[in-house]
Write a structure and sequence with these properties.
The chain is mainly alpha-helical. It has 2 domains: 399 residues, Sodium/glucose cotransporter, CATH 1.20.1730.10; 106 residues, no CATH class. The chain has 20 helices and 7 strands. The strands form 3 sheets. The chain has a 3-stranded antiparallel β-sheet, with no helix packed on it. A two-stranded antiparallel ribbon has the order 1-2. 49% of the residues are buried. It is a multi-pass membrane protein.
Length: 609
């Protein structure tokens, strides 16, 4: 195996630049939020909520424009059976950001949440929040593993270095600067990475287009030259599949912590919306060079190149068309610069996913579910440990699991059919409760898994209308096998069923308990009779009057006092109260006054009636 020294030097310089920017961002913002009294853990998670339009727009765009985005777009444009018509990611994710900005960014940011799971735990309780954490974690970890695996394969194509070594080095760099600076390091490195992606790919396109082996892409778009036209087409029998996949990208791209981490880090709710719209435009712009590279691959006479007479699609290397074009149709110095772009794309997504997974675990699982009395320093260390653990887990899966893409496909589907309908419920639908949430969780999971997953070799046990059997080559063994293909839009139907199940079961449970048809003692989830929404959220005592918690019912309190007061209220007639930051302010609760004596650190209960 020949190692290209120039390529290694180029990659080393790029990685060193990213590492230095990450460390600089951490140093620059090490005291951020201290003046406002913001916890260090919250600063790591949401960057002190002072991310501006410039950095915020870049980091939100870079979150979507990853290795899978640019490689996958080029691959689908290149493949004869698909073409541009099936390259849905650019428009799907762009519309996802538009929909997220229009409907989800403002309510999430204005209510001061720290993670995507906060509203679920606020409405449905900490146990349901833990259940919803599972598909969210799976999505982030499998996504990181998939793009790290793609990076290793890309580096091996152009530089001829060991795949495992390249994956480990890339992961270590991303983990290190994420450990040091949290969201600040991730955001600032995203600016550099997105610039490298844009510059690297656009520099490569003119050289590839003018290569003598490449035909006019405007002709190959509509006429068959070396393969089917790269414009592609949608056959009548595949229409519902196309719609199902597009809905998955457009709506399933919303309920991800990597997106809401940027939304919640914005300096205001309006800024959060603007960031989403800027990122939508950025996704479309960044997809253009990938589309052109895929079209170039479909317009190339590979017999005239150093690659050989057999096209990549016939060697089962269509997923590597972007690095292959960079290597064989561009000069060496251009291909190495393009390689830096691919590496940047991968790292910009991997660091975000690792930070998102650790943020949800530290806050929603460790702190709110198990250790409500945990100090801020303790939460910070939990985050650091889980960043390392989740990063290591993603790296290990990228190295040893041949089905990492299939695992990500399935987990992203579960995010769509389970989390998205419940996110709509907690933000916009009144009256849903934990019973409906559990039912929706089960409905969505069974209906989606029941449809099978061909990439994992998982056969269906629910055969939806229009299913067919096709012969396909196994991606690991290379053997031909019979695969059941679902032509029905079962993913979107599963999502809708999950949403309707949540609403129906919630109202049924409420009716049965409130009418007395089921004894109150059987409300074991405390979802109807005993309102769980008085549970303590970090820095906030949540008070409920009915089914929804309004903005006027939320007041900040001192972090260390909220837990003490919550414990006391549990023994003083289940008092429902709000506490402000002022230690001398007393709040009325029914006919009594509860006063926090700051000096003596105890509660005085004074009768006034």
């Amino acid at each position: 195996m020949t190692i290209h020294i120039e390529g290694l030097v180029a990659i080393a310089i790029f990685y060193l630049l990213i590492l230095c920017v990450g460390i600089w961002a951490a140093w620059k913002n090490k005291h951020s939020g201290e003046a406002e009294g913001t916890d260090r853990s919250e600063t790591i998670m949401v960057g002190g909520r002072d991310i501006g339009l410039f950095v915020g727009g870049f980091t939100m765009t870079a979150t979507w424009v990853g290795g899978g985005y640019i490689n996958g777009t080029a691959e689908y444009v290149y493949l004869p059976a698909y073409g541009l018509a099936w390259a849905q990611a650019p428009f799907g994710y762009a519309l996802s950001l538009v929909v997220g900005g229009l409907f989800f960014a403002k309510p999430m940011r204005s209510r001061g949440y720290v993670t995507m799971l906060d509203p679920f735990q606020q409405i449905y309780g900490k146990r349901m929040g833990g259940l919803l954490f599972i598909p969210a974690l799976m999505g982030e970890i499998f996504w990181s593993a998939a793009i790290l695996s793609a990076l290793g394969a890309t580096l091996s194509v152009i530089v001829d270095i060991n795949i495992k070594m390249s994956v480990v080095i890339s992961a270590l760099i991303a983990i290190f600067y994420t450990l040091v600076g949290g969201l600040y390091s991730v955001a600032y490195t995203d600016v550099v990475q997105l610039f490298c992606i844009f510059l690297g790919l656009w520099i490569s396109v003119p050289f590839a287009l003018t290569n003598p082996a490449v035909s006019d892409i405007t002709i190959t778009a509509v006429k068959q030259v070396y393969q089917s036209p790269w414009r592609g087409s949608i056959h009548k029998g595949d229409t519902w599949v196309w719609i199902d996949n597009f809905c998955l990208l457009m709506l399933g791209g919303i309920p991800w912590q990597v997106y809401f981490q940027r939304v919640l880090s914005a300096s205001s709710a309006n800024y959060a919306q603007v960031l989403s719209f800027l990122a939508a435009f950025g996704c479309l712009v960044m997809a253009v060079p990938s589309v052109l590279i895929g079209a170039i691959g479909a317009s190339t006479d590979w017999n005239q190149t150093s690659y050989g007479a057999i096209p990549p699609k016939d060697k089962d290397q269509a997923d590597m068309i972007l690095p292959i074009v960079l290597q064989h149709l561009c000069p060496p110095f251009v291909s190495f610069f393009g390689l830096g772009a691919v590496s940047a794309a991968v790292m910009s997504s991997a660091d975000s996913s690792i930070l998102s997974a650790s943020s949800m675990f530290a806050r929603n699982i460790y702190q709110l579910a198990f250790r409500q009395s945990a100090s801020d320093r303790e939460i910070v260390w939990v985050m650091r440990i889980t960043i390392f653990v989740f990063g290591g887990l993603a790296t290990l899966m990228a190295l040893v699991t041949g089905t990492v893409y299939g695992l990500w496909y399935l987990s992203s589907d579960l995010v769509y059919v389970i989390i998205f309908p419940q996110l709509i419920s907690v933000l916009f639908v009144k009256g849903t409760n934990t019973y409906g949430s559990v039912a929706a969780y089960l409905f969505g999971m069974v209906l989606r898994i029941g449809g099978g997953e061909p990439y994992l070799g998982m056969p269906p046990f629910i055969y939806y209308p229009g299913w067919t059997v096709e012969q396909r080559k196994h991606h690991v063994t290379g053997e031909m096998e019979d695969v059941v293909i679902q032509k029905f839009p079962f993913k979107t139907i599963s999502m809708i069923a999950s949403f309707l199940g949540n609403v129906a079961v919630s109202h049924l449970a409420k009716y049965l308990f409130e009418s007395g048809k089921i004894s109150h003692k059987y409300d074991f989830l405390d979802a109807v009779v005993s309102k769980h929404s008085g549970e303590i959220m970090d820095k906030t005592t949540l008070v409920t009057r009915g089914n929804n918690i309004g903005l006027s019912e939320m007041a900040p309190v001192k972090p260390r006092l909220s837990v003490t007061l919550a414990a006391a209220f549990g023994t003083v007639g289940e008092a429902v109260t709000l506490l402000s930051n002022s230690p001398e302010r007393s709040m009325r609760a029914d006919a009594n006054v509860l006063r926090w004596d700051y000096k003596r650190k105890h509660i005085q209960l004074v009768l006034i009636g």
